[in-house]
Amino acid sequence: MRYLGDTPPQKFDLGKDDRAELKGQEPAVIWFTGLPGAGKSTLANSLEKLLHKDGRHTMVLDGDNVRRGLNRDLGFEASDRLENVRRVAHVAQLMVDAGLIVIVALISPSRSERRWARELVGSSQFIEVFVDTPLKECIRRDPKGHYARALAGKIPDFTGISSNYEPPEDPEIRIDTMSGEPLHLALQIMKYLAANQLLTLRSPRSRAFV
After folding, report:
1. Closest to 34 measured CA to CA, from 159, 153, 121
2. Cβ pair 104, 92 in contact under 8 A
3. Which of 5-9, 53-57, 157-161 has the lowest mean pLDDT?
4. How many other β-carbons are positioned within 10 Å of the β-carbon of residue 56?
5. How far is CA 80 from CA 34, 108, 141, 162, in A?
6. Is residue 161 a part of any domain in this protein?
7. Range of the domain at 141
8. How far is CA 8 from CA 4, 5, 11, in A?
9. For residue 166, which of 92, 103, 90, 81 has the smallest C-alpha distance?
10. Residue 208 belongs to a domain
11. Angle at which helices 16-23 and 78-97 pack, to 10 degrees?
12. Is there a domain that residue 205 lies in?
């Protein structure tokens, strides 16, 4: 099959702003990054419930879930991890173009990969959330038993054990999961979104059929 990546994109009359206006919200990507077991998915779940209660149109892209479908063909080698982030970032971009608030819960261990995702989506609509949980606490929690297997040498290239994780240097939000319950922490993120006018309601233009 011939690669079409350099083919000029097809132009359409309706764009991101039109779709976002119809939903009455500012689209954005809220990108949770952190060690395995840090609490990314738990926080993403709590945040989405708050946004849903506030009448927002949302979608969660969870690292484990996308590997069951979209990325089921990928392993955990460096090249596959890069491709995993690339695909998720492109899906997130498409959902932002659809006017959604997209919550991504993905280890995404490399700063360069997260920087690339930010550039793809657009810096003004990309909020990096560092779920800052100490490695010892992640090992203690070990909700899926991955750390135990990794420490026993049964999982090669496991982030935090045999594969490096690069914490964000300047995230928009840093969450200390040792300081409160998920709902309390998710409320901190809501306050940031409100303070930065990302929860501002759009006023839809009147439309007439022609």
Report:
1. 159
2. yes
3. 5-9
4. 20
5. 18, 12, 26, 16
6. yes
7. 16-195
8. 9, 8, 9
9. 81
10. no
11. 70
12. no
Residue 8, in any domain of the structure: no
CA angle 26, 31, 37 (to 5 degrees): 145
Number of domains in the chain: 1
Q: Tell me the average pLDDT across 101-112.
A: 96
Task: Write the CATH number for 184.
Answer: 3.40.50.300
DSSP label of 178:
G
Q: Which of 46, 79, 108, 123 is catalytic?
A: 108
Q: Is 79 a catalytic residue?
A: no
What's the rounded Cα separation, in Å, for the pair 94 and 140?
Answer: 37
pLDDT one-digit tens code per residue, 128-143: 999 999 999 999 999 8
d(CA 180, CA 191): 15
